[in-house]
Fold:
Amino acid sequence: RINAFQTIAPEISLPPQPIITRWGTWLDAAAYYCDHFDTFFRVMQTFDKNDASSVNITKSLMEDPTIKNDLIFIKTHFGFLVDKITSLEKQGVLLTDSILIVEEVKAKIFQVPGNVGKSIQTKLDSVYDKNHGLKKLNTISNILAGKNHVTIQDLEEELTTSDLPCFKYAPVSSTDVERSFSKFKMLLSDNRRKFTFDNLKKTLIIQCNSQLLGIF
Structure:
């Protein structure tokens, strides 16, 4: 099938393979099929639906008259999210810049028309209302940005004036936490059970600062 695809459509790349837990990859896939729907449909027509259930399902989906509209809608109104997600996953981004990205995303989402737009906006409001941590980071961001309409007294936590500068590069996503899980998993592998605690501690410090040291 790959050879057939490359023969019929040598000018485009193979279809992307989305990762279940990375939403940006699904949006990338939707944009791909929006751009190359007719070419992909032409390739699929050369396959026998009885060869595999995946071929049969794909052909059935592509014959749905609404699928083109859905792909166009997704790319038009949500394609921008891929770059925003990537920006929030980077390390060393200022908290004030991260909050601006989040607010920009929220503003664009609230411009999405139709019933689908209303459903997503309702969901977004619900997520925001439940995310008390983001609200606190928003307040801290305003303080760090020098905005005088908020003060440290507006924070529920007992933070001091010396604490807030430490939030300068605070991440607003869980990406850094997930990166740490990978580092811990690599550190506590089966072939490292004879580590002394002191060496284990030193190795952990090196791994946590590997990006700065240019190692690993």
